[in-house]
Amino acid sequence: MPIYEYICLKCNEKFALLQSMCSADNNTECPKCSSREVKKAISSFSCATGSKDSASSSAPAPGFGGGG
Ligand SMILES: [Zn+2]
Fold first, then answer.
1. How far is the CA of 41 from the centre of ligand 1 (A)?
2. Residuewise pLDDT in 10s, the chain (68 residues)
3. CA distance 19 to 38
4. Which of 27, 25, 8, 24 is nearest to 16 (CA)?
5. Distance 3 CA to ligand 1 centre (A)
6. Backbone angles phi, psi at 36, to 5 degrees
């Protein structure tokens, strides 16, 4: 089950809830101030670009080589 992150617009509390994919427009309320003014945040596994991972060789090595 995917976890959706919500952000409370009242107290800016960030919380995650387990919701089904079909579920939409649910009456989610903040667990801190019990406010209904929450906004669904973007999932972590979604739109994950712009990673600082530029420390690799041109040719990707499948495994260890040499050193014998
Ligand atoms: Zn709140």
1. 14
2. 778 899 999 999 999 988 776 655 568 899 999 999 999 887 655 444 555 555 555 666 677 666 66
3. 15
4. 8
5. 18
6. -90, -5
Alpha helices by DSSP H, listed for 1-68, are none
Site of tokens 């579920």:
23
Residue 31 CA to ligand 1 center (angstroms) comes to 7
Gap from CA of 62 to ligand 1 centroid (Å):
48
Burial zone of 49 (CB within 10 Å; 0-12 exposed, 13-18 middle, 19+ buried): exposed
Distance 22 CA to ligand 1 centre (A): 25
pLDDT at 48: 47
**Which residues are CB-contacts of 4 (< 8 A; sequence separation ≥ 6)?**
16, 17, 18, 19, 40, 41, 43
